[in-house]
């Protein structure tokens, strides 16, 4: 249930709504909007609480039941777009946020060389996986977490890039959080609810990838797990879903961008690399994502894709990556964004 306060509601009025919710045994979250404030009343498992309990309180404009299964991620709770601040950019603001780098850290040189190219291309965020959730246990699953994190530290020190990296285990969340600027939750863990809560509590922004076969509603409910830890900094990432089509690795659901923009206030970026599966298609999907209104891109780049230990077929060479950044500029401009 959402309690929308009047424009002129006082802090006391807001406290009154919170006190009522608390006295009835409900939780709450407050969105102190620029225009007006909204209080989400949480935990009404039966859907039975009367809206009148709140509608009669001073300063209340109206009370709406959110019939959607997701609540805190819903635009009704937070009418303005959320932007998420990273050290050198703001995701969801006018400028698009590019995140690029290797799927996985394989060696110091491979990761550092890629980071330098990413930086030279004007990109502010390095993506680089540490421990990987591989579909087969017999494939390369990354260096040890400590080795990878040491390499990330060295890269950050030299380049000043912000870093996004995936965490796959609850027990490692705090360690990874000490070394990255944005915690990535991978597609395979979108419904690992303990991990979502642990990532939310780490206090850093969280990049939440869409599950391979998750509906947008399920994805936004997963976002609610993070938001419910009082961490408002969630970025959604559409990375392709499983369909009957096998010509690409997954099917980029480009329609998810306008749908998410309608249903939610959270920023959304596109990962064309995992969707395409083949580097030759990555550019077209990246452009489609930007044209559809995505707030940024997450792209895999490797010094020598043919030798990559993970996701080489979809990784861009340095030359192709630099060209793509240039090709994206007029498209960003056409939809009123900068790059
Ligand atoms: C990745 O970003 O390298 C990754 C494993 O992505 P996803 O979780 O989308 O498969
Ligand atoms: Mn990958």
CATH class of the largest domain: Alpha Beta
User: Are any ligands bound, and if so which?
Assistant: phosphoenolpyruvate, manganese (II) ion
Q: Estimate the helix proportion, in percent.
A: 25-40%
Q: From the alpha carbons, calculate the radius of gyration and give it in angstroms.
A: 21 Å
Q: CA-to-CA gap between the ends?
A: 38 Å
Tally of distinct domains: 2
Mean of the pLDDT scores? Answer: 96
Strand proportion: 15-25%
Mass-distribution shape:
elongated
Order of helices and strands: EHEEHEEEEHEHEHEHEHEHEHHEH
Structural class: alpha/beta
CATH superfamily of the largest domain: Aldolase class I
The count of strands amounts to 14
Number of helices: 11
Main β-sheet, in a few words? 8 strands, parallel
What's the architecture of the largest domain in CATH terms?
Answer: Alpha-Beta Barrel
As laid out across the biggest beta sheet, the strand order is 13-12-11-10-9-8-7-14
Q: Per CATH, what is the topology of the largest domain?
A: TIM Barrel
- Provide the low-confidence segments as ranges: none
């Amino acid at each position: 249930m959402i309690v929308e306060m009047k424009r002129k509601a006082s802090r006391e009025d807001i406290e009154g709504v919170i006190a009522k919710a608390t006295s009835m045994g409900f939780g709450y979250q407050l969105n102190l909007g620029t225009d007006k404030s909204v209080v989400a009343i949480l935990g009404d498992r039966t859907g039975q609480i009367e809206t009148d309990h709140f509608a009669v309180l001073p300063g209340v404009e109206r009370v709406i039941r959110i019939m959607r299964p997701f609540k805190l991620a819903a635009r009704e709770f937070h009418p303005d777009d959320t932007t998420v601040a990273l050290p050198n950019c703001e995701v969801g603001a006018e400028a698009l946020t590019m995140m690029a780098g290797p799927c996985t850290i394989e060696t110091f040189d491979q990761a550092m060389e890629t980071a330098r190219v990413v930086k030279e291309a004007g990109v502010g965020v390095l993506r680089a996986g540490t421990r990987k959730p591989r579909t087969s246990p017999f494939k390369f699953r990354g260096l040890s977490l400590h080795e990878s994190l040491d390499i990330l530290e060295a890269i950050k020190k030299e380049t000043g890039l912000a870093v996004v990296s995936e965490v796959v285990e609850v027990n490692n969340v705090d360690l990874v959080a000490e070394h990255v600027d944005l915690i990535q939750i991978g597609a395979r863990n979108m419904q690992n609810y303990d991990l979502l809560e642990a990532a939310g509590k780490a206090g850093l922004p969280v990049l939440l990838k869409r599950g391979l076969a998750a509906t947008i509603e399920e994805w936004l409910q997963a976002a609610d797990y993070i938001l419910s830890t009082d961490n408002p900094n969630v970025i959604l990432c559409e990375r392709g879903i499983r369909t009957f089509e096998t010509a690409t690795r997954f099917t980029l659901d480009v329609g998810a961008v306008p749908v998410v923009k309608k249903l939610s206030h959270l920023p959304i970026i596109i990962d064309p690399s995992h969707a395409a599966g083949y580097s030759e298609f990555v550019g077209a999907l990246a452009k489609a994502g930007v044209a559809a209104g995505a707030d940024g891109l997450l792209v895999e780049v490797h010094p020598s894709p043919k030798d990559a230990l993970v996701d080489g077929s979809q990784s861009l060479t340095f030359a192709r990556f630099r060209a793509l950044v240039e090709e994206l500029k007029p498209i960003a401009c056409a939809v009123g964004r900068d790059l």
